[in-house]
Amino acid sequence: MTDTSALIQQAERQCRQRGVRFTPIRQRVLQIIADTRGGLKAYELLDRLATEHASARPPTVYRALEFLIDQGLVHRIESLNAYVACPCPEHAHGFQLLICRDCGRVEELHLDDINERLGQRARELGFVVQRQTIELLGRCEACRSAIATS
């Protein structure tokens, strides 16, 4: 699990350096996501947020998520339609996600050579990449061990 307080501090610094507002609702959304093991769907996030903020509505959550994604603080897990906190938001390059199909654990990789090769090949084909998502679905070591011992 991510060290939430360190992640929030990093997000505050990053937003301040970029001159963007890290509002309390954006901070709380990031905190909820970071405190959740694996991915969190938008409506699950809304349910949690609504217990604290009666005025929380879907547009509020989606705007906060869009901001956090744009700032590299949160990633959208396309295959699960869920969101996960980025453990290293200072990393400006692409990423890959390992997703355990049993426990939902998500690990982030930064294999920059893969992204560079994909980008190069896309350019060779005259294609402009606007967004890239690489997700690998499988079983983490803990879940494989649990299956093996049962």
Q: What general form does the structure show?
A: globular
What is the H-and-E element order? HHHHEEEEHEH
- Total discrete domains: 2
CATH class of the largest domain: Mainly Alpha
Q: Could you please say which CATH topology of the largest domain applies here?
A: Arc Repressor Mutant, subunit A
Question: Nutshell version of this structure?
Answer:
The protein is α+β, with helices and mostly antiparallel strands and 150 residues long.
What's the structural blueprint in terms of helices and strands?
Layout: H1 4-18, H2 24-34, H3 42-50, H4 58-70, E1 74-77, E2 82-85, E3 96-100, E4 106-109, H5 112-124, E5 135-138, H6 141-149
Parallel strand pairs: 3-5
Antiparallel strand pairs: 1-2, 3-4
Helix pairs in contact: 1-2, 2-4, 3-4
How is this structure best described in words?
It comes from Halomonas halophila. Belongs to the Fur family. It is found in: Cytoplasm. Homodimer. Keywords: Cytoplasm, DNA-binding, Iron, Metal-binding, Repressor, Transcription, Transcription regulation, Zinc. The protein has 150 residues and is an alpha+beta fold. The protein has two domains: 4-85, Arc Repressor Mutant, subunit A, CATH 1.10.10; 96-149, Dna Ligase, domain 1. 47% of the residues lie in helices and 14% in strands. The strands form two sheets. Strands 4-3-5 form a three-stranded mixed β-sheet, with no helix packed on it. The protein has a two-stranded antiparallel ribbon with strand order 1-2. α1 runs antiparallel to α2, α2 (24-34) packs across α4 and α3 packs across α4 (58-70). It is globular, with a radius of gyration of 17 Å. The relative contact order is 0.13. The mean pLDDT is 91.
